[in-house]
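Appendix B. Raw example, untouched.
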Amino acid sequence: MKYAEFKQLHMHRQARHLHQHGHLLAERRQDSFRLRLFALGDFYAEEWREWEQESILFIHLFQHPDGLHEYLSAIRLPEKL
């Protein structure tokens, strides 16, 4: 799925699609939030949750690699590329 198509989905459908088709690259903590970075198609998605909570606050999308800066030390690439 391309960036523009994904952006049009409701957040709950975005989350479902991310968990089914995205590649979890890294996870980090920022203040009281848990952030998970996914790669999907031609973009990246950052899932924001309050720490120790299951509900998603929002999903931040980006295409430029500059957004990866905070994750570089924690990114786990898939074994099969």
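End of appendix B.
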